[in-house]
Amino acid sequence: MALHTFIIPDPFYILGSTKKFCSKAVQNKIKGACDVNIKKAFGQPAPHSHPHLLGDDEVTPLIKKQEYQCRRQKLVDAVIKHAKKNCSHAENHMIIIPSTSKKYMSDKIPYVFRQNTDFLYLTGCQEPDTCAVITAGSHGSNHRVALFTRDKDDHAELWDGPRTHPEDAPGFFGVDQGLPMSDLSKYISSCKKALPHLSLWYDFEAAPHQDIHKIVCDYLHDSSNKTFDSPRNFIHKLRLYKSTAEVALMQRSCDIASKAFIETMSYSRPGIGENQLFAKVDYECRVRGAEILAYPPVVAGGTRATTIHYINNNQLVFNNEMVLVDAGCEYHGYSSDITRTWPINGRFTNQQREIYEIVLDVQKELIDLCAKRPSLDALFECMCLLLGKRLQELGLIGIQPNNNYLMQAAYQLCPHHVSHYLGMDVHDTPTISRNIKLEPGMIVTVEPGIYITEKSGLPKEYHGIGIRIEDDVLITVNGPVVLSRKCPKDICEVEQIASVGLEQCSKNV
User: Fold this and answer.
1) Three-class HEC string of 136-154
2) What range defines the domain where residue 299 resides?
3) DSSP code, position 372
């Protein structure tokens, strides 16, 4: 079915001037919030303090507290179902999900804080040094959630800003109880005493917060009941399927990144630095509302594009070279991941055009194939076969009818997978196998590429060509929807946009 039959709502956002980008009703709402000063500030945006970002009852943009409560209930149900299936004798369960702690690059100078996405998914809490403890009986419907937030500290809040105090947590986050972090160890010990046959669910491998990890380890060391397991896979199974609000957030993330790519393409010109293109895509994402880039971008000019994860971004891109840019942004906790390759002077050479057309045609075929809902591993095998056939037709691979030969030859030129799950993290839900069939609600990347080095054995005129084209695709009952569809990739459109920078440079001369 045609893509335009699937309508995705844009989330509410602003850019720059409130009057220019907000409706009259929203302007009045912001004015009202400014007039009423009786509501305290929290440690993160709230509807009363940030009405331009959050609607009523939203914990994070577009996601209401009821959705977070539903996620926690689903997690409890999954844990209890698993326990019963495996004949566990546990009568009660305690699930501990920690936040991330602050990380410092040097004394008192922090890195940009990024929350543990499993914790963020279940609570909406964006603050460091916090923890959720969920306790449930064997039926699950009577589970309780205690959210531990940072202790009150007037001196720390003077320097770092307000915190969400424990007494405010139930009303804002929709949990049953708010407690200070200093009570976490005592609370866990009291649960051990009050709840018989208690099974602990905690991810010992990830351990994003060392202080909380020590408390949990001490509990397990002192406990006579050593029953424990990780809830991570259950959380990832929930995160794999995106809600309507999540799809809208990811659509907006893709729209922002797509516009940033267009602006960066039109800004490029021969002799430009990779660092300048990096800065341009970063700026264009942030100015449209993205908080950060989703990952260190690849900005690889010329032969550097054949290095898959090149992130030095410190060389110049010269005439007749292409530049490969792999970048995405994070918009209120949800990531985009797009790759485009274009000629820096606005015109593909014959060899560049030939390889680009192969990659583009194969990518379009793979996106169409998503309608049949193959697994990501099956999609990868299809990519290898399609690339091999097209390269053989061009005369760059020997003529052999064997599919295994074609796939092996293609794999030498594209040594990475064609897809991964996408969501709150760029390589989202890593515990989920790529060998399961795609289902509605999943969002994946489709990113074939060809990288021709001197060791490839291909004709010299193709050496140094590195091309990847990547889009973000939502699986629906009506077929695949390309969320990054606003980012140009057809040859004529790419050449037209990429020529703008060269034309502007000529005018200035």
Assistant:
1) EECCCCCCEEEEEECCCCH
2) 240-508
3) G
How wide is the angle at C-alpha 478 spanned by C-alphas 476 and 479, nearest 5°? 65
In the structure encoding, which two tokens stand for residue 244, read together? 């309507």
In this prediction, what percent of the chain has a pLDDT beyond 70?
A: 90
Phi, psi (rounded to 5 degrees) for 230: -95, 135
Residue 109 pLDDT exceeds 60: yes
Q: What angle do CA 9, 15, 18 make, to 5 degrees?
A: 105
Last residue of a domain, one of 178, 205, 238: 238
Closest by Cα among 228, 226, 197, 189 to 91: 197
The CATH number linked to 73 is 3.40.350.10
Q: Once rounded to an integer, what is the mean pLDDT over residues 440-449?
A: 98
pLDDT at 473: 98
> For residue 145, what are the β-bridge partners?
134
Strand 177-180 with 144-149, pairing: parallel
Q: pLDDT of 278-321, one tens digit each?
A: 999 999 999 999 999 999 999 999 999 999 999 999 999 999 99
Integer Cα distance of 169 and 156 in angstroms:
19
- Edge-first strand listing for the sheet containing 329-331: 292-293, 329-331, 334-335
Kindly report, residue by residue over 370-397, the tens digit of the pLDDT: 999 999 999 999 999 999 999 999 999 8
Is the residue at 309 inside a domain? yes
- Are the C-beta atoms of 310 and 300 separated by less than 8 Å? yes
For residue 5, name the pLDDT band (cuts at 50, 70, 90).
Answer: very low
Longest CA–CA span in the chain (Å) reads 80
Whether 340 maps to a domain, the answer reads yes
Nearest alpha-carbon partner for 326 in 266, 261, 377, 386: 261
The answer to whether residues 332 and 60 touch, using CB atoms and an 8 Å cutoff, is: yes
Q: Which helix (H) or strand (E) holds 180?
A: strand 177-180
State residue 338's pLDDT score: 98
Return the closest-CA partner of residue 168 out of 258, 83, 41.
41
Q: φ and ψ at 137, to 5 degrees?
A: -85, -170
Find out whether 230 and 306 touch, Cβ atoms under 8 Å. Answer: no
